[in-house]
Write a structure and sequence with these properties.
The protein is built from two helices and no strands. With 76 residues, it is an all-alpha fold.
C-alpha cells in the first residue's frame, strides 16, 4: 500500500519536530559544557588557593620580626 499525501505530511512534520528537538539538545549540551568548563576552572583555582593556605599553616605563624617588617613595608 503506497503512502498517502497525509502520511507523507505527518512524516515530514515528525522529522521537523525531531530536528527542532535535536537543535535544542545540541544547544543545551553546549551551554552545559561551558558551565562545566567555568566550574572546573574555579575548582582548580580553589584547590590551588587551598594548597597555598595549607602551606602557610604548615609553616607556622609568622615571627614577630616578619610581622614588623611587613608593617614597615606598608608604611613606606
Amino acid at each position: 500500500m503506497p503512502a498517502t499525501d497525509a502520511d507523507i505530511a505527518r512524516l515530514e512534520q515528525r522529522i521537523t519536530e525531531l530536528e527542532v528537538k535535536l537543535a535544542f539538545q545540541e544547544r543545551t549540551i553546549d551551554d552545559l559544557d561551558s558551565v562545566l568548563r567555568r566550574f572546573t576552572s574555579k575548582i582548580e583555582a580553589l584547590e590551588h588557593e587551598l594548597k597555598r593556605v595549607r602551606g602557610d599553616l604548615d609553616a607556622g605563624p609568622p615571627s614577630t620580626a616578619d610581622v614588623l617588617a611587613a608593617l614597615d613595608d606598608e608604611l613606606e
